[in-house]
Amino acid sequence: MTKLTNSSLQNASKDSDGLPLSVEHLTVSFHRKPVLWDVSFRAEPGKLIGVIGPNGAGKSTLFKAIMDLIPKTDGKVHVFGKPFATNRRRVGYVPQRESVDWDFPISALDVVSMGLYPEIGWFRRVKREHRQRAMSSLERLGISDLANRQINELSGGQQQRTFLARALVQNADLYLLDEPFSAVDAATEAVIVNVLRELRDAGKTVLVIHHDLQTVTDYFDSVLLLNMRVVAFGETADVFQAENLQKTYGGMLTLFDEATEAMRHRRKA
Amino acid sequence: MESVKSAVRIFFRGLGLCGLLLATLVTPTPGLGQVTDDSPHFGASFEDGQRFSLADYNTQIVVFGAGLLGFAAGLVGCFALLRRQALVGDALSHATLPGIAGAFILVSFFGGNGKGIGWLLLGATITGVFGTLVMIGIQRLPRLKPDTSLGIVLSVFFGAGIVLITLAQQMESGHAAGLESFIYGKAASMLRSDAQLIAITALGVSLLVGLFFKELKLLCFDEGFAVARGYSRFWLDGLVMGLVTIVTVIGLQAVGLILIIALLVTPAAAARFWTNSLGWMCLISATFGAAASVGGALLSAWATDLPSGAMIVLMCSGIFVLSLLFGPTKGIIFKSTSLYHPAVSETQ
């Protein structure tokens, strides 16, 4: 806990103490069935990385295993050269929007303030300065006018922006975003992409679970193609090609299905 | 929506009990009005035929104790409700019965005062917590859904409790009559020491909620994020369950184990219709809980034979219905008029 509360706002863009994220031989299983198998990759600073794969490929599981939310069967994860628990404060997490109860009695500003709770510490209240920081985070995502709205009065896109604002306010160096573009409107998608690019340009590393294959080359510097194992990892231009996608999605038919689903996701917005 | 569902469920339970009450009243009961220990009437009292007035010292104690109990239950109930642990509280309260009966039998057997409240509540806590743990254990087994484990634990422990109570009443030593008031609740039997215990507990519970408000809020809203940021799910959930246990156990006497869950959930569900802020929801819920408990205890005291637990729950249900209709944030009437501005949202 002390690590959490004693915040040092180090904006380390280039770190001497190790890569933002290194995953080595990570295996995760549920009820003895492997969900991730021998996954290894290293994420460099200042990269916007897409994590691509079919449903059930273990994308969310990968994020959860990185953050110790679920137990690893085997393998190691290092965040800036140290175990996750040590460098927790430097990791910003945006869970799937569906993972929370949007009927919860709380305002958008309150949700964003939650990103500051570990920094505020036990037994202390959220003060004006914290609210101001939360407010500027909402501003960055263009929804500061909705700060006092109850969260179920927000649209899907606005809810997603609120979630991202909560991760931003913590001023992390590595961000893990689980489907930030699912069921959002075009305006929100543009705003989020912009913020992600700003983060990358500030030397931060951003991993994004993404479904829309159409936009991958446009959005990401690198891609991680995942289907239980790492199918391919590298620069988008090198890795994101038909052959690898076929391996990831297991044949053209599935790929077609996934592509239609991706389109549906977009249209829903 | 979950919250509304459980509140509606409990409301109907209250209605059912109301019917049962009416039936009991209509049926000519021999010796009604001068209830004795072995009367078949379930409101059987410790102090026979006692009447109350507000100026009466005993009444003041009961009102004070019930009010604080309702306050604590309303407060804790908000988190039980939002953390979706309301049904766990139900299993917990039912699982206290074998502990009460068991404690009575054991203590009487060793020659102690079996009805010493300390022993009874200790027994209640032990089996209550044990029942909750069994339930969580069953949930961990593959292929068993939470509602299954709830059904198993609730009925098995309650059944065991009934058996033990019957055994206790057949015992020669001790004087088991009145034990069954833990099932339906009897606020009128509250002593000064009981009210003091409730006061101390309510203070402690409020203090804990105040101290950990922010963390509890985070846990209830977004568990995954909380754990990723380094908060321990085990300890925070343990805190919620601990608070629910404390309120349940100290509320057994006044509200009874069948209905205590309603005092936890209904004020919280009602409060949700009045505000969109968790802080206000807690305060409103605690106020509702206190008001319903005071009102219910008074009604029960004045009408002598109505069990206080049932009256308290009916008061809660009344507040819930009023909130459902007139609550400004989600109430039916406001929602169907232009006063409510609906979500500017595209839904999925």
Describe this structure in words.
The complex is a heterodimer of chains A (269) and B (348). Chain A is of the alpha/beta class and 269 residues long. Chain A has one domain (2-268): P-loop containing nucleotide triphosphate hydrolases (Rossmann fold, 3-Layer(aba) Sandwich). Chain A is built from 11 helices and 9 strands. Mean pLDDT of chain A is 88; it is low at 1-16. In chain B, helix 2 (57-82) packs across helix 12 and helix 13 (278-302) packs across helix 14. The two termini of chain B are 17 Å apart. Classes of the chains: A alpha/beta (269), B mainly alpha (348). The interface between A and B is large, with 43 and 34 residues.
How many E strands of chain A?
A: 9
Mean pLDDT of chain A: 88
> What form of chain A results from the Cα inertia axes?
globular
From the structure provided, what is the oligomeric state, counting identical versus distinct chains?
Answer: heterodimer
Rg over alpha carbons of chain B: 20 Å
Q: What global shape of chain B is seen?
A: globular
- SSE order of chain B in H/E notation? HHHHHHHHHHHHHHH
CATH class of chain A: Alpha Beta
Amino- and carboxy-terminal Cα gap of chain B: 17 Å
Low-confidence stretches of chain B: 20-50, 340-348
Q: List the secondary-structure elements of chain A in sequence, H or E.
A: HEEEHEEHHHHEHEHEEHHH
Strand content of chain B: under 5%
Biggest beta sheet attributes of chain A? 6 strands, mixed
